[in-house]
Design a protein that fits this description.
The complex is a heterodimer of chains A (116) and B (349). Chain A has a single domain, classed as Four Helix Bundle (Hemerythrin (Met), subunit A) (Up-down Bundle). Helix content of chain A is 81%, strand content 0%. Chain A contains 8 helices and no strands. By secondary structure, chain B is an alpha/beta fold. Chain B is 58% helix and 7% strand. Classes of the chains: A mainly alpha (116), B alpha/beta (349).
Chain lengths: 116, 349
């Protein structure tokens, strides 16, 4: 339960997530445990760096779905905006949002890794 | 009973949430991409619904929808798009490909279960209903066929036949039409069509109901005038058929009408009623003509005794009963053994 309480302080809507997971907190925690690897695999910043915006939008889109389902609300909002901006052909604005959210994402990942 | 739900998403996290939501009540099948989904859909017959992500590496959700359209399964299995996608065009494309509903990530599990459960129930009813309707159509077709057979048999009884002639004509038409179709590509007919021709052959003599007893059952040779009346059984048969088209399906009606009218036409144009020649006569009418002549030869009639098999074959080949298409005669001779056995089978029964 430490993980869930701590995530709440980082803006994660854990009540909503638990409802989605049919109140199976064990499954929720287990799926949170898979999140760091998903972020690493998507590696959105690398695609921005390479200016490969096609892959950037695809991977950001994947993380939008995952963060939404895990109710990692601040990240979900950011990835939603990033996808929309990339599709609107505004990669600079998208990258700015990414840079802003990365520290929050790192905190959430650190919290998950510490508790698993 | 359809009882599995197929979850298609490249992210394990998303699949796990959906699996948790539906595991009580359904068998859960999971696919990481479109290709795996298609394999599972082809292999499993118990899938009650597909929960499909659109954007996946490799084969995506749209390709799965296209595959389900191609094989027609989209009509029987509800597909729900579960996506973080908000592009209107993409979602519209999914609807146009038959997706039943689009559910946005993140979703609320309780609502999702209700929505999907309701649609599965609706599809189940629809699929069951379709099965019931198909069974009824099949039963109706059988009843119609037996009515047609009854009609043909009644007419034969007037002709002092026992109803066996109709059965033998069906068997002979089947053997001959199959042989002609296999031997000559220009006369090829798929099996399903041959079966319709066989059914249609039942009514070739339906017009005899309109021929007076004195002519129909005359023991001796018919006078010229009497023969003219007798010839009318072809056109009178068509008159009768036009009044009962709803008894048969459209194709069988079309074959019946043609066979009824033209089974006395001859290859050299010397038959009746229209004096058609060569391939102006449909191949099925030509086939039934040979079958009809053969059966008349090997059966006793009020005006003649039965000829034996060899004599009948010789008479047909010699053109003693009119000229036939050489290709049909060839098929007839190639199938002679089968035809003879068929004749024996009937005699023994």
């Amino acid at each position: 339960m430490d993980l869930i309480n701590e995530l709440e302080t980082l803006g994660v809507n854990t009540a909503e997530a638990l409802a989605r997971f049919m109140n199976n907190s064990g499954l929720y925690v287990r799926m949170l445990g898979k999140f760091p690897a998903a972020v690493k695999e998507a590696d959105v910043p690398a695609h921005f760096e390479a200016k490969d915006y096609v892959t950037a939008v695809a991977t950001a889109h994947t993380l939008k779905g995952v963060t939404g389902n895990l109710s990692l609300t601040p990240l979900y909002k950011a990835y939603t905006d990033i996808v929309a901006l990339l599709r609107a052909d505004e990669p600079e604005k998208a990258e700015a949002i990414l840079k802003e959210i990365l520290p929050v994402q790192e905190k959430i990942i650190a919290c998950i890794e510490k508790n698993s | 009973m359809n009882s599995a739900i197929l979850i298609v998403d490249d992210m394990e996290i998303n699949r796990a949430i959906l699996a948790e939501g539906f595991k009580d009540g359904y068998e859960i099948l999971e696919a990481e991409n479109g290709l795996q989904a298609i394999e599972l859909l082809d292999k499993n017959t118990n899938i009650a619904a597909v929960l499909l992500d659109l954007i996946m590496p490799g084969m995506g959700g749209m390709d799965v929808l296209k595959h389900l359209n191609d094989n027609g399964k989209i009509l029987h299995i509800p597909v729900f798009i579960i996506t973080a996608e908000s592009s209107e065009k993409m979602l519209m494309d999914a609807y146009n490909l038959g997706a039943v509903d689009v559910i946005s990530k993140p979703f609320m599990m309780n609502f999702l279960r209700c929505r999907i459960g309701n649609i599965i129930e609706l599809y189940r009813h629809r699929n069951d209903l379709e099965e019931v309707v198909n069974e009824q159509v099949e039963r109706l077709n059988k009843v119609n066929l037996s009515m047609v057979e009854t009609l043909a048999t009644l007419i034969e009884f007037r002709d002092c036949e026992s109803g066996e002639h109709v059965k033998r004509i069906c068997g002979l038409t089947d053997i001959l039409m199959t042989a002609v179709s296999e031997m000559y590509p220009e006369y090829y007919l798929p099996r399903g069509e041959i079966e319709k021709v066989v059914t249609a052959s039942i009514l070739h003599d339906v017009g005899k109901i309109a021929i007076p007893d004195g002519i129909l059952n005359k023991p001796g040779r018919l006078t010229k005038e009497e023969f003219e009346v007798m010839k009318q059984h072809t056109t009178r048969g068509c008159d009768i058929l036009t009044r009962i088209p709803s008894v048969m399906n459209e194709d069988i009606y079309r074959y019946s009408y043609d066979i009824c009218r033209h089974h006395h036409e001859r290859w050299d144009g010397r038959g009746y009623p229209d004096g058609l020649a060569g391939d102006e006569i449909s191949i099925w009418a030509q086939v039934v003509a040979v079958a009809d002549v053969y059966d008349a030869l090997v059966s006793p009639r009020v005006y003649k005794a039965a000829f034996d098999f060899d004599t009948a074959v010789k008479m047909i080949n010699n053109g003693e009963c009119g000229t036939f298409n050489p290709k049909i005669l060839n098929a007839f001779n190639v199938s002679a053994e089968k035809i003879r056995r068929g004749e024996n089978d009937t005699e023994n029964s």
